[in-house]
Design goal:
alpha/beta; 23 helices
């Protein structure tokens, strides 16, 4: 019998299309031993997610395994029956999908969804499963797990929903966990907590981990072996030291050069050293937030939660302010208040000196044209019924800007600007990868040439090379047009590359704000130091 827990041997997967079959995975072979962590890295569309979906036979209807074998605990899952697969999924192989929005049932409470794994596999009754579900949520790093278990997915932040998916994967203590971008929605401290827990499972129970990630820093810190995929095949593999310190393939070298977490001290020259407009302390602000407060009523009449507590900052023309902090720190709520997508409990939001908290009607509609949003979740942000051209031109149609021909030309221009092929214009979101969808969302936000972009985790779903392209693109646009950015992120390595000023939020309060170099090199807050210490990628490159 093989010593490996999982063996993928000559796996090939193809997709049926009207133009004929497309090979998404070609002759992939890899192994995962008991207690081993294997990370698969590569660009969006490289075949890494298709490979792991083939392992548990969760491929879409248009996809088929055309060749190869997938042996788990000695059994070939390619030829396994539906009943055998149901016994393996969840019980023997835990799976953490990439997108929590489409992976959680919106009308079932969180605790019930986590407990369902134990009940389906006959490991607990209703009462015991509910208790175990809370414990699993705590292990996955969800604060106030007993309260969160009674909530619905829409009541949690994106990072919290991701932790629910992790709890579902680990609750049955399976010998293998397949994690498809499990920490891309998490801040660095919670990311470290989750990965530390997975490492503890490895040590204590011999759990194996097959990790799909675009974060080479995570792979460097956590994997025993790294496998690099490109265009459906494996181009390089080895230990983190071998792959990252002595890469043999040009594609691997390209990925390493573009990885923010491996180059956290290298700011993009176009962003920081050559801003579009030289800023001074007395320069007028495009956006100014003063004493901002937002309170939410807690369920069951339990009082109020202050999500934003006395926040104040200013953004000048051609400058980028980044807000960083853990999930639930108030970053996104602050951004929604700045956009007037929610009303503050107290405080003011000034846009070019005008208090937008008091605007309504046509004045508020005019504001919408001058400020645009790029949401963090490309799966939920795009109408699945529209093609890319219609999605990008939708703001132009809504504001009655340009003729039909001019709108089409603008869409084509923006698709090229965000590094998508021209043929993308006629495709729908379901036909695009997560990274491609996010680029469409950025193109749509740029369509009406706003003065301020609010970017809520705009590159969290993108692989490192596309991250680099998008950050460089944003820098170029800022330099050319003097655009201002409010940049929301949990990724401090990305913030180091894009921001001029950084504000650190914790529990709704702004605990530190200053020039990005000052905050990174001389943090004044213990909380900021903890965030910086949690940036992945230092174990291999900076031992």
């Amino acid at each position: 019998m093989s010593e490996n827990l999982l063996e993928i041997d000559g796996l090939s997967v193809s997709y049926r299309t009207p133009q004929g079959p497309i090979d998404a995975v070609r002759d992939v072979s890899l192994t995962v031993a008991p207690g081993e962590t294997v990370a698969i890295v590569g660009e969006s569309g490289s075949g890494k997610s298709t490979t792991v979906h083939a392992v548990i036979r969760l491929l879409p209807g248009a996809a088929a395994i055309s060749d190869g074998a997938v042996r788990f605990e000695g059994r070939d899952l390619v030829t396994a029956s539906a009943a055998a697969l149901r016994a393996v999924r969840g019980g023997r192989i835990g799976f953490v999908p990439q997108d929590p929005t489409v992976s959680l049932n919106p009308v079932v409470r969180i605790g019930a969804q986590v407990a369902e794994v134990l009940r389906v596999h006959g490991r607990a009754d209703r009462r015991t499963a509910a208790i175990e579900a809370v414990a699993a949520l705590e292990r996955a790093g969800l604060p106030d797990a007993h309260l969160r278990a009674q909530q619905y997915p829409h009541e949690l932040s994106g990072g919290m929903r991701q932790r629910v998916l992790i709890a579902i994967a680990i609750i049955a203590d399976p010998p293998l966990i397949i994690a498809d971008e499990p920490t891309s929605a998490l801040d660095v401290t919670v990311q470290r907590q989750i990965l530390d827990h997975l490492d503890a499972l490895k040590r204590e129970r011999g759990t194996s981990l097959l990790l799909i990630t675009h974060d080479l820093g995570v792979a460097a810190d956590r994997a025993d072996r790294i496998i690099v995929m490109s265009q459906g095949g494996i181009v390089e593999q080895g230990t983190p030291a071998q792959v990252l310190l002595d890469p043999q393939h040009p594609y691997t070298r390209q990925l390493i050069a573009a990885a923010p977490s491996l180059n956290a001290r290298q700011a993009l020259p176009a962003v920081v050293t050559a801003p579009a407009v030289a800023a001074s302390a007395g320069a007028p602000a495009v956006l100014e937030v003063d004493g901002l407060v937002k309170e939410f009523a807690l369920p069951g009449g339990g009082g109020v939660q202050r999500a934003v507590d006395g926040v104040g900052f200013r953004i000048q023309r051609g400058r980028t302010l980044a807000l960083v902090g853990e999930s639930g720190s108030g970053k996104t709520t602050t951004a929604r208040l700045a956009l007037r997508l929610a009303d503050p409990t107290a405080g003011r939001v000034l846009f070019h000196g005008d208090d937008v908290t008091r605007l309504g009607g046509s004045a508020l509609r005019t504001l919408r044209r001058r400020i645009q949003l790029v949401q963090h979740n490309p799966y939920a942000a795009l109408n699945p019924r529209l093609n890319v051209e219609a999605l990008i031109t939708d703001p132009l149609v809504a504001l009655r800007l340009g003729s039909r021909a001019q709108r089409r030309a603008r869409a084509a221009e923006l698709v090229d600007l965000v590094a998508l092929p021209a043929g993308t214009l006629h495709r729908k979101p379901a036909e695009l990868s997560g990274g491609q969808r996010q680029r469409v969302a950025i193109a749509r936000a740029l369509a009406i040439e706003p003065e301020l972009l609010v970017l809520d985790e705009p590159v969290s779903a993108l692989d490192v090379s596309i991250q680099h392209q998008i950050l460089t693109l944003l820098a170029d646009i800022q330099r050319e047009f003097g655009l201002s950015y409010l940049f929301i992120s949990h990724d401090l390595a990305v913030v180091r590359q894009i921001a001029h000023t950084v504000g650190v939020m914790q529990r709704g309060r702004l605990v530190e704000i200053g020039d990005v170099d000052d905050v990174f090199e001389r943090p004044a807050s213990d909380y900021t130091r903890a965030l910086l210490d949690a940036i992945p990628g230092r174990a291999v490159l900076h031992p």
